[in-house]
Amino acid sequence: PLDVNLASVFAIQLLLADLSAEIPRTASTASLPVDYSQEEWHTCPLPQVRSVNREECEGVIEPLVGILCATEIERQAVLRMMRPPKNKRAVFQVYVGKNSCFVGRLGLTDIVLCMTAMGSSGRDASTVVTGEMIQSWNLQAVIMVGIAFCRDSGKQEIGTVLVSERIAPYE
Asked: Cβ contacts of residue 7 below 8 Å, gap of 6+?
């Protein structure tokens, strides 16, 4: 069976890909095991990272989008695709409160990446970290990448982008 963490990595790849290209699927290829070991998000080296304080980011990069993840493999996949801010040589690592954020670019978009604990309640949980990210960085959007807890494999295939109508804690 496919490692469920790869589902979120695949979703990140889709965000970066040309979504107008359609991938043909046939009954014979849909059931084959997929080897992700040669994908760019898996083989690309991690970018150089430089620790800076929040004030050093001002005037250099102001992220519009926050990306949250709850597992190390998701964070590594996003980091592998990140590029430094314009005219810089390294992705910035910024500590804001108790959060370790990575600031750089995905494609043409300035982003901030932060990891949360799994779940929606607790000090480092998604609810708290999301609020802190929005407040600290004045974000226009937040994307939570993940494995779509309780997804319905009959309705959603790996790589399907799910948009919630509401947010409800499950703990």
From this structure: 147, 148, 158, 159
- Single pTM value for the model: 0.71
Instruction: For the chain, 171 residues long, give each residue's pLDDT as a single digit of tens.
Output: 344 444 555 555 555 554 444 445 555 555 556 666 666 666 778 889 999 998 888 889 999 899 998 888 888 888 998 999 999 999 999 998 888 999 999 988 899 999 887 656 666 666 778 888 888 899 988 888 876 655 666 776 666 777 767 666 666
Residues 65 and 104: beta-carbon distance below 8 Å = no
Integer-rounded Cα Rg, in Å, for the chain is: 17
Name residue, tokens 């496919």.
2
